[in-house]
Design brief:
alpha/beta, Rossmann fold, binds 1,4-dihydronicotinamide adenine dinucleotide, Adenosylhomocyst_ase-like_sf, one-carbon metabolism, Adenosylhomocysteinase, EC 3.13.2.1, cytoplasm
């Protein structure tokens, strides 16, 4: 069984560095700060055990800390083998009420063993990013389901998985689709993924965006962010899509839209954001130019077919930290970042989304965890939308912290907006 991180690593230096990262994040997370105050006072999670599988870096650590301050016993592990910051994991493990099992660079077996260590705490609430924890509980520990009041899911792919489970009547406790709220999706997926993916690629390669042709696969929330930010840094952007309205939207934004089969020979940098598999495959590799960069920002490492790339390569070697070069028989080198895993979280220099963005996403997570504990009777097994008033609560805290005031509806305006009788 996996031991807590502090028993696995020499912790002294790591602890200080992790605590510094957490302090920096804490200073820039006004929403979690405000919730911390109310949780500390009201202890909404007293007696609850919260199991978490998330990217264990500084912002996530603050969420775990705030849940623990609210009375929970928290056990956490990573949701990706490469996204954990070991120093943060150590610092988090030292927080009262939190045990962290997350470690960077684990193999598949260690990854699932750490998840089992979290499940061993017999969580009453689960907080997931990608659905691995919920899935493991349903597959291997169904006896725990009776005592689980519910949970929250962070990302698009996790919500897709949960909806698929729900459609098969296989999801046996309530889960909030945190991803789908405006306060999460419109900021985290769009701005967070856009900014942090481009920053990670630039820092990992030390190459410029200006003058490059960037191919963005998928024009959903993440793809929109990536395309906009790449364009803002003077790259030419090509979008590939399978959904006609999304393709049209990209076209009307001024991007070139074409199939990957055509984009393959045009691009200098390829960034996948589809949540799907086999988006860049063998035929595409054959058409690509020497030196292209291949990066994935979707949740799982299945968007670029690395097995086919490996099979076709005559040589592979580490070109830089976080960049693996695949040399083709004709001498072309195709460079894969972060082993095809989430590029904004999994290169050696990745830091994930900006702190302010994660404050919003995790603010929604925190109020959803509170809701599921306080009103569990109102939610049956299945996927639930986050109640709008909770999302608004988080937005209002943020506006207040930013010192931004807004107008509010007068009674007459409210009556007008609610009426079907007013016309010309
Ligand atoms: P979305 O559902 O809004 O967008 C995905 C788009 O990809 C859709 O428009 C879909 O039509 C398109 N697509 C699907 N298959 C395709 C194919 N073969 N070729 C071209 N386009 C295709 O999803 P969203 O929110 O943009 O998330 C995308 C992925 O990114 C998910 O796996 C999600 O979990 C992940 N994600 C990653 C984050 C990060 O930090 N890197 C943050 C948030 C989400």
């Amino acid at each position: 069984m996996t031991a807590p991180i502090s028993e696995q690593l020499d912790t002294d230096e790591l602890l200080e560095s992790g605590q510094r990262k957490m302090e920096w994040a804490r200073q820039h997370m006004p929403i979690l700060d405000s919730l911390r105050e109310s949780f500390e006072q009201n202890q909404p999670f007293a007696g609850e055990r919260i199991g978490m599988a998330m990217h264990v870096e500084a912002k996530t650590a603050i969420l775990a800390e705030v849940l623990a301050v609210g009375g929970a016993e928290v056990a956490i592990t990573g949701c990706n083998p490469l996204s954990t910051h070991d120093d943060v994991s150590v610092a988090l493990d030292a927080v009262d009420g939190v045990t962290s099992y997350a470690k960077r660079g684990v193999d598949d077996e260690e990854y699932y063993e750490a998840m089992e260590a979290v499940i061993d705490h017999e969580p009453t609430v689960t907080v997931d990013d990608g659905g691995d924890l919920v899935f493991a509980i349903h597959e291997d520990y169904p006896e725990l389901i009776d005592t689980i009041v519910g949970g929250c899911e962070e990302t698009t792919t996790g919500v897709h998985r949960l909806r698929a489970m729900d459609d098969d009547d296989a999801l046996e406790y309530p889960m909030f689709a945190v991803n789908d709220t405006p306060m999460k999706r419109l900021f985290d997926n769009v701005h967070g993924t856009g900014e942090s993916s481009l920053a990670s690629i630039a820092m990992t390669t030390n190459l410029s965006w200006a003058g490059k042709t960037v191919v963005v696969a998928g024009y959903g929330d993440c793809g929109k962010g990536v395309a906009k930010k790449a364009s803002g840094q003077n790259a030419d952007v090509i979008v590939t899509e399978v959904e006609p309205r999304r393709a049209l939207e990209a076209h009307m934004e001024g991007y070139d839209v074409m199939p990957m089969a055509d984009a393959a020979s045009e691009g200098d940098v390829f960034i996948t954001t589809t949540g799907n598999r086999d988006v860049i495959v063998e035929d595409h590799f054959e058409a690509m130019s020497d030196g292209v960069l291949l990066a994935n920002a979707g949740h799982f490492d299945v968007e670029v077919d690395l097995e086919a790339l490996e099979a076709n390569a005559v040589d592979t070697y580490e070109a830089r930290d976080g960049v693996q070069a695949y040399e083709m028989a004709d001498g072309r080198r195709l460079n894969v970042l972060a082993e095809g895993r989430l590029v904004n979280l999994a290169t050696p220099v990745s830091m994930g989304h900006p702190v302010e963005v994660m404050d919003q996403s995790f603010g929604v997570q925190a109020v959803c965890a509170r809701e599921i504990v306080q009103n569990s009777d109102e939610y049956g097994a299945g996927v639930h939308e986050v109640p709008d008033e909770l999302d608004r609560e988080v937005a209002e805290i943020k506006l207040e912290a930013e010192g931004i005031e807004t107008d509010s509806l007068s009674d007459t305006q409210e009556e007008y907006m609610d009426s079907w009788q007013h016309g010309t």
